[in-house]
Amino acid sequence: MLKIVTLLVLYFNNFGESTVLYAAVIYRHGDRTPVDTYPTDPWRNESLWPVKFGELTNIGKMQHYELGKWLRRRYVNLISEEFDPSTVYVRSTDVDRTLMSAQANLAGMYPPTAKSMWNQDIPWQPIPVHTIPENNDEVLAMKRKCKPYIEEKHKYINSKSYKERLSKYNDLMKYLTVNTLKKINDYEDIVSIYTTLKIETLYNFTLPPWTRKVFPEAMRDPACYSFQTATGTALMTRLMIGPLMQQIVNHMYDAVQEKPNHIKLSIYSGHDFTIGNILNGLGVYDGNCPEYTSTVFLELIGNGSDHYIRLSYRNSARIVEPYVLSLPNCGKLCPLQQFTKLYDNIISVDWEKECREGSPVSWFVEFYFILLLFLGILYAVSGILILKRRDKKLLRQSLASTQKRLFHQ
Protein backbone atom coordinates (compact mmCIF):
# COMPACT_ATOMS: atom_id res chain seq x y z
CA MET A 1 0.00 0.00 0.00
CA LEU A 2 2.84 2.37 0.89
CA LYS A 3 4.46 1.73 -2.49
CA ILE A 4 1.19 2.55 -4.28
CA VAL A 5 0.92 5.82 -2.34
CA THR A 6 4.54 6.65 -3.22
CA LEU A 7 3.87 6.03 -6.90
CA LEU A 8 0.76 8.20 -6.78
CA VAL A 9 2.68 11.04 -5.14
CA LEU A 10 5.41 10.80 -7.75
CA TYR A 11 2.86 10.58 -10.54
CA PHE A 12 0.97 13.70 -9.51
CA ASN A 13 4.23 15.52 -8.82
CA ASN A 14 5.43 15.05 -12.39
CA PHE A 15 7.60 18.16 -12.39
CA GLY A 16 8.79 18.27 -8.82
CA GLU A 17 12.41 19.36 -9.01
CA SER A 18 13.35 18.03 -5.57
CA THR A 19 12.85 14.40 -6.60
CA VAL A 20 15.10 14.56 -9.68
CA LEU A 21 18.50 12.98 -8.97
CA TYR A 22 19.77 13.09 -12.56
CA ALA A 23 18.44 14.36 -15.86
CA ALA A 24 19.41 13.89 -19.49
CA VAL A 25 18.09 16.67 -21.72
CA ILE A 26 18.18 16.03 -25.46
CA TYR A 27 16.99 18.87 -27.67
CA ARG A 28 16.80 19.92 -31.27
CA HIS A 29 18.45 23.16 -32.44
CA GLY A 30 16.43 26.33 -32.94
CA ASP A 31 15.06 28.05 -36.05
CA ARG A 32 17.31 27.77 -39.08
CA THR A 33 17.34 28.51 -42.79
CA PRO A 34 16.88 25.61 -45.24
CA VAL A 35 19.80 23.20 -45.42
CA ASP A 36 19.05 22.41 -49.02
CA THR A 37 16.53 23.66 -51.55
CA TYR A 38 15.42 22.15 -54.86
CA PRO A 39 16.18 23.18 -58.47
CA THR A 40 12.85 24.92 -59.13
CA ASP A 41 12.62 26.65 -55.74
CA PRO A 42 11.90 30.37 -56.32
CA TRP A 43 13.58 31.11 -52.96
CA ARG A 44 16.79 29.16 -53.53
CA ASN A 45 18.90 32.34 -53.72
CA GLU A 46 20.75 32.44 -50.40
CA SER A 47 20.82 36.24 -50.41
CA LEU A 48 17.05 36.24 -49.75
CA TRP A 49 17.60 34.70 -46.33
CA PRO A 50 18.84 36.29 -43.08
CA VAL A 51 21.81 33.91 -42.78
CA LYS A 52 23.51 31.31 -44.95
CA PHE A 53 21.72 28.03 -45.59
CA GLY A 54 21.59 25.63 -42.66
CA GLU A 55 22.63 28.24 -40.09
CA LEU A 56 20.88 29.22 -36.84
CA THR A 57 18.87 32.44 -37.12
CA ASN A 58 18.38 35.12 -34.47
CA ILE A 59 14.96 33.61 -33.85
CA GLY A 60 16.63 30.26 -33.17
CA LYS A 61 19.09 31.86 -30.78
CA MET A 62 16.28 33.47 -28.81
CA GLN A 63 14.30 30.22 -28.75
CA HIS A 64 17.19 28.43 -27.08
CA TYR A 65 18.01 31.31 -24.78
CA GLU A 66 14.44 31.16 -23.46
CA LEU A 67 14.60 27.36 -23.19
CA GLY A 68 17.83 27.70 -21.21
CA LYS A 69 16.15 30.03 -18.72
CA TRP A 70 13.27 27.57 -18.41
CA LEU A 71 15.71 24.68 -17.80
CA ARG A 72 17.36 26.71 -15.03
CA ARG A 73 13.98 26.99 -13.30
CA ARG A 74 13.16 23.33 -13.83
CA TYR A 75 16.44 22.07 -12.37
CA VAL A 76 17.04 24.78 -9.77
CA ASN A 77 17.31 22.11 -7.05
CA LEU A 78 19.51 19.82 -9.10
CA ILE A 79 22.33 22.08 -10.28
CA SER A 80 24.25 24.88 -8.61
CA GLU A 81 23.92 28.54 -9.51
CA GLU A 82 27.52 28.60 -10.71
CA PHE A 83 28.47 26.28 -13.56
CA ASP A 84 30.16 23.15 -12.22
CA PRO A 85 31.92 21.07 -14.91
CA SER A 86 32.05 18.03 -12.63
CA THR A 87 28.25 17.81 -12.43
CA VAL A 88 27.00 19.32 -15.71
CA TYR A 89 28.08 18.00 -19.11
CA VAL A 90 27.08 19.57 -22.43
CA ARG A 91 27.64 17.92 -25.77
CA SER A 92 26.67 18.95 -29.29
CA THR A 93 26.95 17.49 -32.73
CA ASP A 94 29.71 19.14 -34.74
CA VAL A 95 27.34 21.39 -36.68
CA ASP A 96 27.13 25.19 -36.49
CA ARG A 97 23.43 25.37 -35.64
CA THR A 98 23.61 22.81 -32.83
CA LEU A 99 26.77 24.29 -31.33
CA MET A 100 25.26 27.78 -31.44
CA SER A 101 21.98 26.50 -29.98
CA ALA A 102 23.85 24.95 -27.07
CA GLN A 103 25.71 28.19 -26.42
CA ALA A 104 22.53 30.29 -26.56
CA ASN A 105 20.80 27.78 -24.28
CA LEU A 106 23.64 27.96 -21.74
CA ALA A 107 23.52 31.75 -21.83
CA GLY A 108 19.99 31.44 -20.53
CA MET A 109 20.87 28.75 -17.99
CA TYR A 110 23.96 30.40 -16.57
CA PRO A 111 23.79 34.19 -16.53
CA PRO A 112 26.97 35.41 -14.84
CA THR A 113 26.78 36.11 -11.13
CA ALA A 114 28.93 38.69 -9.35
CA LYS A 115 31.51 35.94 -8.92
CA SER A 116 31.58 34.88 -12.57
CA MET A 117 31.17 38.32 -14.18
CA TRP A 118 34.34 38.88 -16.19
CA ASN A 119 33.28 41.80 -18.37
CA GLN A 120 30.76 44.42 -17.25
CA ASP A 121 29.83 45.13 -20.87
CA ILE A 122 28.92 41.51 -21.64
CA PRO A 123 26.34 39.84 -19.36
CA TRP A 124 27.46 36.41 -20.51
CA GLN A 125 30.02 33.81 -19.53
CA PRO A 126 31.62 31.04 -21.62
CA ILE A 127 30.47 27.49 -20.80
CA PRO A 128 32.20 24.46 -22.38
CA VAL A 129 30.34 22.59 -25.11
CA HIS A 130 31.95 19.30 -26.12
CA THR A 131 31.87 17.87 -29.63
CA ILE A 132 33.71 15.59 -32.04
CA PRO A 133 33.56 15.33 -35.86
CA GLU A 134 30.30 13.76 -37.02
CA ASN A 135 31.98 10.91 -38.87
CA ASN A 136 33.64 9.85 -35.60
CA ASP A 137 30.54 10.31 -33.45
CA GLU A 138 28.39 7.25 -32.75
CA VAL A 139 26.92 8.77 -29.57
CA LEU A 140 25.08 11.93 -30.63
CA ALA A 141 25.54 12.57 -34.36
CA MET A 142 25.00 8.81 -34.85
CA LYS A 143 26.92 8.98 -38.13
CA ARG A 144 30.01 6.92 -37.42
CA LYS A 145 30.34 4.11 -39.92
CA CYS A 146 29.04 0.74 -38.76
CA LYS A 147 29.03 -2.06 -41.32
CA PRO A 148 26.45 -4.28 -39.52
CA TYR A 149 24.10 -1.28 -39.32
CA ILE A 150 24.50 -0.52 -43.02
CA GLU A 151 23.81 -4.15 -43.90
CA GLU A 152 20.77 -4.29 -41.61
CA LYS A 153 19.34 -1.07 -43.04
CA HIS A 154 19.85 -2.38 -46.56
CA LYS A 155 17.78 -5.47 -45.66
CA TYR A 156 15.17 -3.31 -43.96
CA ILE A 157 14.57 -0.88 -46.84
CA ASN A 158 14.44 -3.81 -49.25
CA SER A 159 11.93 -5.74 -47.16
CA LYS A 160 8.45 -6.42 -48.52
CA SER A 161 6.71 -4.48 -45.74
CA TYR A 162 8.89 -1.41 -46.21
CA LYS A 163 8.42 -1.36 -49.98
CA GLU A 164 4.68 -1.88 -49.69
CA ARG A 165 4.30 1.04 -47.32
CA LEU A 166 6.50 3.29 -49.44
CA SER A 167 4.57 2.33 -52.59
CA LYS A 168 1.54 4.20 -51.18
CA TYR A 169 3.44 7.39 -51.96
CA ASN A 170 4.54 6.55 -55.51
CA ASP A 171 2.22 9.14 -57.05
CA LEU A 172 3.36 11.75 -54.54
CA MET A 173 7.04 11.03 -55.24
CA LYS A 174 6.47 11.23 -59.00
CA TYR A 175 4.60 14.51 -58.58
CA LEU A 176 7.38 15.98 -56.44
CA THR A 177 10.06 14.78 -58.86
CA VAL A 178 8.32 16.47 -61.81
CA ASN A 179 7.72 19.75 -59.99
CA THR A 180 11.01 20.08 -58.09
CA LEU A 181 13.26 18.54 -60.79
CA LYS A 182 14.85 16.61 -57.94
CA LYS A 183 14.63 12.82 -57.88
CA ILE A 184 12.38 11.77 -55.00
CA ASN A 185 12.80 8.10 -54.15
CA ASP A 186 12.23 7.70 -50.43
CA TYR A 187 10.94 9.14 -47.16
CA GLU A 188 14.15 11.09 -46.62
CA ASP A 189 13.71 12.82 -49.98
CA ILE A 190 10.12 13.72 -49.10
CA VAL A 191 11.04 15.16 -45.69
CA SER A 192 13.78 17.26 -47.30
CA ILE A 193 11.25 19.02 -49.55
CA TYR A 194 8.63 19.15 -46.79
CA THR A 195 11.05 20.85 -44.39
CA THR A 196 12.11 23.42 -46.96
CA LEU A 197 8.51 24.32 -47.76
CA LYS A 198 7.68 24.52 -44.06
CA ILE A 199 10.55 26.94 -43.38
CA GLU A 200 9.59 29.09 -46.34
CA THR A 201 6.04 29.25 -44.95
CA LEU A 202 7.39 30.35 -41.57
CA TYR A 203 9.22 33.18 -43.34
CA ASN A 204 6.08 34.19 -45.23
CA PHE A 205 7.52 33.32 -48.63
CA THR A 206 4.83 32.55 -51.21
CA LEU A 207 5.01 28.90 -52.21
CA PRO A 208 4.72 27.82 -55.88
CA PRO A 209 1.15 26.95 -57.00
CA TRP A 210 1.98 23.25 -57.44
CA THR A 211 2.57 22.88 -53.69
CA ARG A 212 -1.13 23.49 -52.87
CA LYS A 213 -1.98 19.98 -53.99
CA VAL A 214 0.45 18.23 -51.63
CA PHE A 215 1.67 20.59 -48.91
CA PRO A 216 1.36 20.19 -46.06
CA GLU A 217 -1.29 17.47 -45.72
CA ALA A 218 -0.25 14.89 -48.32
CA MET A 219 3.43 15.22 -47.41
CA ARG A 220 3.15 15.26 -43.63
CA ASP A 221 2.71 11.52 -42.97
CA PRO A 222 5.59 10.27 -45.16
CA ALA A 223 7.81 13.17 -44.06
CA CYS A 224 7.30 12.42 -40.37
CA TYR A 225 7.55 8.68 -40.95
CA SER A 226 11.14 9.29 -42.06
CA PHE A 227 12.08 9.66 -38.37
CA GLN A 228 11.22 6.00 -37.83
CA THR A 229 13.35 4.51 -40.57
CA ALA A 230 16.78 4.86 -38.93
CA THR A 231 15.59 2.66 -36.04
CA GLY A 232 13.42 0.36 -38.13
CA THR A 233 14.60 -2.92 -36.57
CA ALA A 234 15.84 -4.03 -33.16
CA LEU A 235 19.43 -4.27 -34.42
CA MET A 236 19.28 -0.85 -36.10
CA THR A 237 17.92 0.63 -32.86
CA ARG A 238 20.65 -1.03 -30.78
CA LEU A 239 23.45 0.28 -33.00
CA MET A 240 21.88 3.72 -33.57
CA ILE A 241 20.86 4.89 -30.08
CA GLY A 242 22.63 2.31 -27.92
CA PRO A 243 25.79 4.37 -27.23
CA LEU A 244 23.81 7.43 -26.11
CA MET A 245 21.33 5.47 -23.99
CA GLN A 246 24.18 3.50 -22.43
CA GLN A 247 25.93 6.72 -21.46
CA ILE A 248 22.75 8.14 -19.92
CA VAL A 249 21.92 4.98 -17.96
CA ASN A 250 25.50 4.81 -16.66
CA HIS A 251 25.10 8.36 -15.31
CA MET A 252 21.86 7.28 -13.65
CA TYR A 253 23.56 4.43 -11.81
CA ASP A 254 26.37 6.77 -10.77
CA ALA A 255 23.70 9.00 -9.23
CA VAL A 256 22.05 6.03 -7.48
CA GLN A 257 25.41 5.00 -6.02
CA GLU A 258 26.14 8.64 -5.12
CA LYS A 259 29.58 8.53 -6.68
CA PRO A 260 31.68 11.62 -5.88
CA ASN A 261 31.22 14.42 -8.42
CA HIS A 262 28.87 12.36 -10.55
CA ILE A 263 27.14 14.04 -13.48
CA LYS A 264 23.74 15.41 -12.45
CA LEU A 265 22.69 16.98 -15.73
CA SER A 266 23.63 15.90 -19.25
CA ILE A 267 22.62 18.19 -22.09
CA TYR A 268 22.73 16.98 -25.70
CA SER A 269 22.26 19.42 -28.57
CA GLY A 270 21.14 17.59 -31.69
CA HIS A 271 18.69 17.49 -34.56
CA ASP A 272 15.17 16.32 -35.37
CA PHE A 273 16.89 13.10 -36.46
CA THR A 274 18.29 12.71 -32.93
CA ILE A 275 14.89 13.28 -31.29
CA GLY A 276 13.12 10.93 -33.70
CA ASN A 277 15.65 8.15 -33.14
CA ILE A 278 15.38 8.34 -29.35
CA LEU A 279 11.57 8.43 -29.30
CA ASN A 280 11.11 5.70 -31.89
CA GLY A 281 13.86 3.56 -30.39
CA LEU A 282 12.13 3.67 -27.00
CA GLY A 283 8.77 2.90 -28.60
CA VAL A 284 7.07 6.24 -27.87
CA TYR A 285 7.23 8.16 -31.17
CA ASP A 286 3.81 9.65 -31.94
CA GLY A 287 4.32 10.20 -35.68
CA ASN A 288 4.71 13.98 -35.48
CA CYS A 289 7.86 15.60 -36.86
CA PRO A 290 10.07 17.08 -34.11
CA GLU A 291 9.80 20.88 -34.13
CA TYR A 292 12.54 23.42 -33.36
CA THR A 293 13.79 23.06 -29.76
CA SER A 294 11.74 19.87 -29.28
CA THR A 295 13.15 18.28 -26.13
CA VAL A 296 13.31 14.80 -24.61
CA PHE A 297 13.77 14.55 -20.82
CA LEU A 298 15.05 11.33 -19.26
CA GLU A 299 14.95 11.89 -15.51
CA LEU A 300 15.95 9.68 -12.61
CA ILE A 301 13.42 10.11 -9.80
CA GLY A 302 14.48 9.05 -6.31
CA ASN A 303 12.30 8.18 -3.35
CA GLY A 304 14.31 6.64 -0.55
CA SER A 305 15.81 3.42 -1.86
CA ASP A 306 13.44 3.34 -4.85
CA HIS A 307 14.40 4.83 -8.20
CA TYR A 308 12.26 5.47 -11.24
CA ILE A 309 12.72 6.78 -14.75
CA ARG A 310 10.36 9.44 -16.08
CA LEU A 311 10.39 10.15 -19.80
CA SER A 312 8.90 13.50 -20.83
CA TYR A 313 8.65 15.32 -24.14
CA ARG A 314 7.85 18.80 -25.41
CA ASN A 315 7.41 19.25 -29.16
CA SER A 316 7.08 22.97 -29.66
CA ALA A 317 9.18 26.03 -30.43
CA ARG A 318 7.24 27.78 -27.67
CA ILE A 319 8.09 27.29 -24.00
CA VAL A 320 5.49 24.79 -22.86
CA GLU A 321 5.46 22.17 -20.15
CA PRO A 322 6.51 18.73 -21.37
CA TYR A 323 4.07 15.87 -21.08
CA VAL A 324 5.04 12.58 -19.46
CA LEU A 325 5.18 9.62 -21.85
CA SER A 326 4.14 6.11 -20.92
CA LEU A 327 6.95 3.67 -21.60
CA PRO A 328 5.74 0.40 -23.17
CA ASN A 329 5.18 -2.27 -20.50
CA CYS A 330 6.43 0.08 -17.79
CA GLY A 331 4.24 3.17 -17.56
CA LYS A 332 4.91 6.80 -16.72
CA LEU A 333 7.13 6.05 -13.74
CA CYS A 334 9.29 3.10 -14.69
CA PRO A 335 11.45 1.44 -12.01
CA LEU A 336 15.11 1.82 -12.99
CA GLN A 337 15.87 -1.90 -12.91
CA GLN A 338 12.79 -2.70 -14.95
CA PHE A 339 13.76 0.00 -17.46
CA THR A 340 17.25 -1.45 -17.89
CA LYS A 341 15.78 -4.92 -18.30
CA LEU A 342 13.18 -3.82 -20.86
CA TYR A 343 15.75 -1.90 -22.91
CA ASP A 344 18.68 -4.25 -22.38
CA ASN A 345 18.93 -4.83 -26.13
CA ILE A 346 19.76 -1.14 -26.52
CA ILE A 347 21.74 -0.38 -23.37
CA SER A 348 23.99 -3.45 -23.49
CA VAL A 349 25.46 -2.58 -26.88
CA ASP A 350 29.22 -3.02 -27.31
CA TRP A 351 29.44 -0.66 -30.24
CA GLU A 352 33.20 -0.91 -30.78
CA LYS A 353 33.08 -4.68 -30.92
CA GLU A 354 29.92 -4.89 -33.02
CA CYS A 355 30.94 -2.15 -35.45
CA ARG A 356 34.61 -2.99 -35.93
CA GLU A 357 34.86 -1.34 -39.33
CA GLY A 358 35.82 2.27 -38.83
CA SER A 359 36.43 1.86 -35.09
CA PRO A 360 39.73 2.49 -33.27
CA VAL A 361 40.01 -1.28 -32.70
CA SER A 362 39.86 -2.10 -36.41
CA TRP A 363 42.15 0.86 -37.14
CA PHE A 364 44.72 -0.65 -34.77
CA VAL A 365 44.36 -4.09 -36.37
CA GLU A 366 44.72 -2.56 -39.83
CA PHE A 367 47.77 -0.55 -38.71
CA TYR A 368 49.29 -3.64 -37.11
CA PHE A 369 48.73 -5.65 -40.32
CA ILE A 370 50.33 -2.91 -42.45
CA LEU A 371 53.25 -2.73 -40.02
CA LEU A 372 53.78 -6.49 -40.21
CA LEU A 373 53.56 -6.36 -43.99
CA PHE A 374 56.10 -3.54 -44.09
CA LEU A 375 58.45 -5.42 -41.75
CA GLY A 376 57.98 -8.55 -43.86
CA ILE A 377 58.91 -6.70 -47.03
CA LEU A 378 61.86 -5.06 -45.26
CA TYR A 379 63.02 -8.46 -44.03
CA ALA A 380 62.70 -9.95 -47.52
CA VAL A 381 64.60 -7.07 -49.15
CA SER A 382 67.28 -7.28 -46.47
CA GLY A 383 67.55 -11.01 -47.08
CA ILE A 384 67.94 -10.50 -50.81
CA LEU A 385 70.63 -7.86 -50.27
CA ILE A 386 72.48 -10.11 -47.84
CA LEU A 387 72.31 -12.99 -50.31
CA LYS A 388 73.53 -10.74 -53.10
CA ARG A 389 76.43 -9.51 -50.97
CA ARG A 390 77.27 -13.10 -50.01
CA ASP A 391 77.09 -14.19 -53.65
CA LYS A 392 79.36 -11.33 -54.67
CA LYS A 393 81.79 -12.26 -51.91
CA LEU A 394 81.76 -15.91 -52.98
CA LEU A 395 82.23 -14.85 -56.60
CA ARG A 396 85.20 -12.68 -55.66
CA GLN A 397 86.66 -15.50 -53.60
CA SER A 398 86.13 -17.90 -56.50
CA LEU A 399 87.78 -15.52 -58.98
CA ALA A 400 90.67 -14.94 -56.60
CA SER A 401 91.13 -18.68 -56.15
CA THR A 402 91.03 -19.23 -59.91
CA GLN A 403 93.55 -16.48 -60.50
CA LYS A 404 95.83 -17.97 -57.84
CA ARG A 405 95.71 -21.40 -59.41
CA LEU A 406 96.45 -19.98 -62.87
CA PHE A 407 99.36 -17.94 -61.49
CA HIS A 408 100.92 -21.00 -59.85
CA GLN A 409 100.53 -22.97 -63.03
Which ranges are low-confidence, i.e. pLDDT below 50, for 5 or more consecutive residues? 1-18, 358-368
Number of helices: 14
Architecture per CATH nomenclature, i.e. the level-2 architecture of the largest domain: 3-Layer(aba) Sandwich
Question: What is the CATH superfamily label of the largest domain?
Answer: Phosphoglycerate mutase-like
N-to-C SSE series? HEHEHHHHHHHEHEEEEHHHH
The quaternary structure here is: single chain
Q: What is the gyration radius calculated from CA atoms?
A: 29 Å
Q: How many structural domains can be distinguished in the coordinates?
A: 2
Please give the largest β-sheet.
7 strands, mixed
Distance between the termini: 121 Å
Number of strands: 7
Query: Structural class of the secondary structure composition?
Result: alpha/beta
CATH topology group of the largest domain: Rossmann fold
- Beta-strand portion reads 5-15%
Mean of pLDDT: 89
Shape from CA axes? Answer: globular
Measured as a percent range, the helix fraction is: 40-55%
Give the CATH level 1 class of the largest domain.
Alpha Beta
Keywords: Disulfide bond, Glycoprotein, Hydrolase, Membrane, Signal, Transmembrane, Transmembrane helix
Catalytic activity: a phosphate monoester + H2O = an alcohol + phosphate
GO molecular function, one term: acid phosphatase activity
Protein name: acid phosphatase
